[in-house]
Amino acid sequence: MKPESISSMFDAIAPNYDFLNRLLSLRRDVYWRREMIQALDLPKKAMVLDVACGTGDVMIEILRQKPDAVAYGIDFSKKMLHVAGEKTRQSEYFSQTGLLAGDALHLPFPSNQMDAVTIAFGIRNVADRKKAIENFLHVLKPGGKLAVLELNTPSRGMLRALYLMYFQKILPGIGGFFSKNPDAYQYLPDSVLNFPAPSGFAALMQRAGFSEITWKPLTFGICTLFTGQKE
User: Which residues partner with 229 through β-bridges?
Assistant: First the structure.
């Protein structure tokens, strides 16, 4: 799917995005984000960039865990950014946030500026993942960390069969009903099923220049947390 089509799709589902994330993941998305930020072990007064920030959930979790941090969010969906702006304005952390329109392939930040970069459920939507990861490396300070959350497909057994039934048959119907955009929730399982296995994505991070790469399956392998560090 072309980037402009993906942007339009996320614009369409932005008003119901948070509700459907909680519903369709049985609120596991909240736990996954919490695990991602904890894994970064952020320093004091950290500067963090959240790419494909959506409605701002990761930014708010960063500041909940590290109240002295500064969190920037970038997204190519203007309506997602609008929702993120409303949420951050209503939070106690508004003065420590910044939102920008843009995408992973064109980051409007200089080199060696960020203590950490995060991207949750967004890297599979990027056309050139290696270039995006190289951009993340570029804006990180030496020693800075990258954390990537992404959905995966369990590899075998009954869990895989049940997951595929839910993901391919039930989820698109529920998502389409509440969002009034069935295409978006058909795109979701298609994009996840086409995403590399964890070892393949970790290898891509290594080719892009990251070291000390780890990946951790969450919730029976439905989601994977990847981390890497800039030397």
Answer: 145, 211
Q: How high is the pLDDT of residue 165? A: 87
State the 10-residue block means of pLDDT for the chain, 231 residues long.
Answer: 84 91 92 98 97 97 97 97 96 95 95 98 95 98 98 83 85 83 83 92 98 96 96 95
Q: Are strands 223-229 and 211-218 parallel, antiparallel or unpaired?
A: antiparallel
Question: What does the block give as tokens for 174?
Answer: 């529920």
CB-neighbour burial class of residue 200 (10 A; exposed 0-12, middle 13-18, buried 19+): exposed
Q: In terms of DSSP bridges, do strands 140-151 and 211-218 run parallel, antiparallel, or are they unpaired?
A: unpaired
In the chain, where the domains are located: 3-154+197-229
According to the 3-state scheme, what is the secondary structure of 129-155? HHHHHHHHHHHEEEEEEEEEEEECCCC
Phi, psi of 220 (to 5 degrees): 65, 25
Beta bridge partners of 50: 73, 118
In order of 10, 73, 94, the CA distances from 76 in angstroms are 9, 10, 21
Q: In the sheet where 70-75 sits, what is the strand order? A: 97-101, 70-75, 47-51, 114-120, 140-151, 223-229, 211-218
Please tell me the distance from the alpha carbon of residue 185 to that of residue 170, in angstroms, as a whole number.
10
Per-residue model confidence (pLDDT) at position 103: 94
Q: Quick one: CATH architecture of 3-154+197-229?
A: 3-Layer(aba) Sandwich (3.40)
